Amino acid sequence: MPLMPVKFTLQKRVKLAQGLWMLYWVSVMVGILIFSLGIFFKVELRKRSEMMDNNESHLVPNLLILTGLLTCALNAFGGKVCHDSLDPMKFAKWKPMLKQYFTGCLAFSAALLVVALLCFLMQFSVYLTLAEGLKNGIRFYKDTDTPGRCFMKRTLDMTQIEFRCCGNNNFRDWFEVQWISNRVQTGNVEGKFLMDSVPFSCCNPGSPRPCIQHHLTNNSAHYDYDLRTEELNIWTRGCREALFSYFSSMMSSIGALIIAADMAGLKYLTTSLESMADPENPECESEGWLLEKSVKETVCDACAKLKALIKPNQVTEGEEPTAA
Amino acid sequence: MAVGRVVLSCSDRQVLARVLVVLNWVSVVTGAVLVSVGVYLWAELRRWEEVMSEDILWSVPVVLVWTGLGACALNLTGARLCLDCSDLNRFLRWKLVLAPYMGVSLLLTTGVLLAAALSLGLNASGRLDAALEAGLSSAMRRYKDSDRNLELKTQLDLVQIQMSCCGKDRYQDWFRVQWVSDQYLDRTDPRVQDRFRSNVAGLYLSDSVPFSCCDPASPWPCPQTHLSSRPAPHFLSLVQSSRSLGLWGKGCREALGQHYSSILNLISLTALGVWGFEMLVVLGVRYLQTSMESLVLIGDPESDSEAWILESSLCETLRVIKSLGKCYHGNDDPNIDRPITGSGAHPTDQ
Fold this sequence. Notes:
The structure holds 2 protein chains of 2 kinds.
Chain A: E1 6-8, H1 10-47, H2 59-84, H3 88-94, H4 98-121, H5 123-139, H6 152-163, H7 239-276, E2 286-288, H8 295-310, H9 312-323
Antiparallel strand pairs in A: 1-2
Chain B: E1 6-8, H1 10-47, H2 59-85, H3 88-124, H4 127-142, H5 150-162, H6 190-197, H7 238-245, H8 252-298, E2 305-307, H9 314-326
Antiparallel strand pairs in B: 1-2
């Protein structure tokens, strides 16, 4: 008993084929979008790789690029088949490949779900890499004359300005390191020069008073200043939180887009199965269905085939006694 | 003697109509490009509006957006029109619309040319530079009034950070204005009182700059204060001496001037290109119109027909236009029918 049989006249088949062709091309666009989002994500990771100690994992953007390309290819093929499905001569050459194509599409949909899941789960690894990278960044801020670290100051300053943040957890991280280069001031206690001051990139342009960078905890050092009530002077957010929220929102939206595309994809996959099932005689009515037998029977058939593939020896052993 | 007279066969007309349809669709795209360029300029002007004093610059994006939208709409109708005009029967439906359509097209192309001329003129005449000079001086003087206009202080800081500049022409410009608000100065401190007394205007002037003048690429922390006590050697240029201190090397007038200049140059080039293209389309539609009109007089849809730009020479056309204006006022047009008074015999009597 076929699953969900539907009777198709010629007009209905033509309409279904045209509608599916449109949907396939929309899916190609979505594939291109996923591909470009993957590239954008990879570029962003590269840009901030110094903040992550060059340790960041490029697994997710690479997967996105691959799935984007595969989505385009699969859906373009599907669109071509749809276009040809109304002409029995052209369709005849595609007919044998259809079953494999549909199983491939189903497997690909499952793979897309896995990629979407990865998008959500890899955020944790991004968070940890950021924490480590920023800690090192703050430590190496003053080493502008050490090869390999000379651009850390500039990168960290630009990050703090762009993302409106200060320090790793908050601005007090700057009090724990010597960030003023030894060339400018010589150390006193243990050769280190620790002050309660922050770099200029922590300053908030939206503050009504000129930026107070030095002696932040000393209220009497500045006129009419109280650290507890002063909120606008420097950025209060930590850079780890700022960068993480940026990356996590990007990854979450990409994951949500993939899930939405996947759901839509599964829906029209079912309709295309209906249309392709029986277009033998072009003029008369034909029946279309989702699955040739019921769900249970199809699953049993698939299991049997799989078993035959995995254990071909059992079949030959069974035959031998009869031959003998 | 017609201007640009040419003979078009039936197939020529079909080809011309099809080419014009494609060109009209391309013109819709160029119209959209004009609109987007206009919106971009408007957004950029809005971004730094506190430091610009001139209002005339806002006219450029307005003209661009309106002419772009008009061009889009006009060329959409033009595409439909040209599709119909290849066939004689369908042309008769559009016959009356064509003359006003040509008029509006010419008006729009003039609008595009006006936008190009405006942006070129503003750039070349120095109006842009003067606007930036006045705007930046005023903004630096009002920097300290953050209690009344916090937006100005924030924007000036962001200009310096994002455009990599400090002061109007050099960082020393900040030494000449009081940029620290009075409410954050301790008047009881003798050092502060000294500063107030040190100049005629009674302002708090110091040799320090705001934090937004700092250059992140400098290898050492930014020295914002006591800048006069760090003199740079005379042989260093402004850029080099500023960089050696860790401040931005450019003045904001130069930085913003370059930024807006490049946008206005882009706009004038784009507008000129679009104008040339539109004139081509108008010319093509004129040829199609005149060829179909002469075809109507001939009557046979398959035959060749003449096409021209102007029916008579340029001077005669101008005379006709002048007389069109006169005929509403004058009574001496010989073509007006008037009963013959006097002894003249009627021609039909003979």
